[in-house]
């Protein structure tokens, strides 16, 4: 069990999206949830997103996964596995203390292994990140947020910057946490073989929201309404755009966004879709409803697969959104939204008498057969 040694509420009010900070001993007696060998094993898998970064003086080398680990230099290299929580249950457990953050903001847990001198160079990210130091030590420097950092490409696939004046310069030891808000430049290199865990939170951009909303409208054949003005007066200046007509067009767009049913469905689907592959394996053979019910009644727990995103809207637990799809819950089964979306697992303790609700059992069976929840291995 991983738990913080500090008050997360105090951290949020003082630092979240305000200032970078180092929380010394944020975890006490921290133990790596994954070994370097297991991490390397993940990086060799084609469906796992990984990369290798090495430097020799000013020469940088980058390889995208799947990686092989032949002919490695002695030091000055590291490799990282994106969304490691999707592939490794131990890594997924490290996410638990961060459940005090909104699930919809969480992106993934990236894990890196670095040899002495290894790191990705000075850069900044578009997301907020908590970097937890596992075994080994790593020196981190963080600079102030500014608009005028010069980007430079020492390698075509590394977006680095030329440099910055540090406001934080510390050596992280096991259990220390470095929080870096989006846009603050940083650079970390290992002093000895080191494991780092980057918990990434990604705030959507306006343009991403609008673009996803436009896709949703088109896919669902909504908004098939043309502008009309049956009271059109004759005009003297045909090249002028009258304010009322411009407003009429803008209102047509706004009207779509004012439909709460449309907006809830789009947001629920959009926010629940994972940006990274998941280890989804359909059940084989498929479960029958009665089999699943008796499994639960025997006391078995069903676990959500790592990285699965499941949400419901406040005040509307009738619909749950799982991995980009909406699933209406049968009438009277709204409490299921809580244990499906706010917990990493559930058992008969939560399901209770609803196990006898045939439509809910059919839905649970479907979700298990799709591979979204599974009994313990
Ligand atoms: C790393 O662990 O090497 C990269 C973390 C980061 O700077 O985003
Ligand atoms: Co970074």
Explain briefly what this protein structure is.
This protein is of the alpha+beta class and 377 residues long.
Oligomer: single chain
Let me know the largest β-sheet: 8 strands, antiparallel
**Rough shape?**
globular
What's the CATH architecture name of the largest domain? Sandwich
> CATH first level of the largest domain: which class?
Mainly Beta
Uncertain regions spanning at least 5 consecutive residues: none
Question: What's the arrangement of strands in the largest beta sheet?
Answer: 1-11-6-13-5-4-2-3
CATH homologous superfamily placement of the largest domain = Cupin
> How many domains, as an integer?
3
Assign the structural class, choosing from mainly alpha, mainly beta, alpha/beta, alpha+beta, or little secondary structure.
Answer: alpha+beta
Q: Total helix count?
A: 10
Roughly how many Å apart are the termini? 19 Å
The strand count comes to 19
Instruction: Kindly state the percentage of residues in helix.
Output: 10-25%
What's the mean pLDDT score?
97
Q: Could you tell me the CATH topology label of the largest domain.
A: Jelly Rolls
Which value, in Å, is the CA radius of gyration?
Answer: 25 Å
Percent in strands: 25-35%
